Amino acid sequence: MKPHAFQEAVQEDFQKRQKGRLRKASDLIGVVWRENNNAERIFNLMPEKNEHSFCSLIRGMVKYGAYTKAFSMYADLLNNRMTADVHTFNALLAAAPNTREKYNEKWELIVETLNQMSEQKVQPNLLTFNAVLKSLRKCGSLARTQSLQTLNEMKALGIEPSLATFDHLLGIFYKAASSVRGPTDMIFEVLDEIEGKSFVARDPDDVYFFSNAMRVCLDLKDVELAYRLHQLLGEGENWKLLGDAFQQSVFYGRFFNLLCMMEHTKKTPKPEPVTSFLK
């Protein structure tokens, strides 16, 4: 079998299941990993399994929610004296908090995975650190301290953060519907850091930054902060990272909601046209 054929089987198996039948409610939630699917059958029939086949299956399991099974397959990879690649470690880091109940256990598994990555001499990249930060959003009170340490290690390695990095930080320090709890200046520090800079897409989650940051502005009822955030869209081609039509509608919906809310309580500066960056 060609190297790419096995990897494609993981995706094709689920695509075929969706054809020729009506959509169910579960389809809207997302496709899940099924026992003994085509990918597993092909993998089990392979006379010689290599690192590529193990890693492809592990990433497929993580993508479709079989988190515990992915770690079990990773253990099989180690038992066969093989090494995972950086993409597989990134997937396992993202899956780690979904396999444990307690916050400290989630973090311990993340650390254990990072240590194994170091032992196998696999160099982390931007997506590695973003995966750690994303997982920390599910680690409760541990998240704030560990996220800052993660960011420091990232900078020590000379890896520039992406918008997804800052989005995860905001997600850790400002929980939905409770942004005013536990005073923090994180969003001000983030805007100070990125103001005047132009970004390019480096992580699929980059497109969530603007809408989520505007949610924080709305929760804090800070109009000036919202204008600072909006102005960032005019730098370079940052507007391309606003996301699809839905994400754009969320961003501007929150922006206008804030403006209407604060209209009678505070005089706001005259804004530039909100669509100016599209010119």
Helix-strand layout with pairing:
Elements: H1 3-18, H2 25-29, H3 38-45, H4 51-63, H5 67-79, H6 86-95, H7 103-119, H8 126-136, H9 143-156, H10 163-173, H11 186-194, H12 209-220, H13 223-232, H14 245-262
Helix pairs in contact: 1-3, 1-4, 4-5, 4-6, 6-7, 6-8, 8-9, 8-10, 10-12, 12-13, 12-14
Structural overview:
The structure is a single chain. With 279 residues, the chain is mainly α. The protein is elongated and about 70 Å long. Helices cover 60% and strands 0% of the residues.
Structural class: mainly alpha
Question: Spans of 5+ residues with little confidence (pLDDT < 50)?
Answer: 18-28, 177-181, 273-279
Helix content: 55-70%
| Strand residue content | under 5%
Number of helices: 14
Structural Rg:
21 Å
- Gross morphology is elongated
Total strands: the figure is 0
Tell me, rounded to a whole number, the average pLDDT. 85
What distance separates the N and C termini? Answer: 50 Å
Largest sheet, in brief, is: none
Secondary-structure element order, as H and E? HHHHHHHHHHHHHH
Keywords:
single chain; 279 residues; mainly alpha; 14 helices; 60% helix; elongated
Nutshell version of this structure?
Helix content is 60%, strand content 0%. With 279 residues, it is mainly alpha-helical. Helix 1 packs parallel to helix 4.
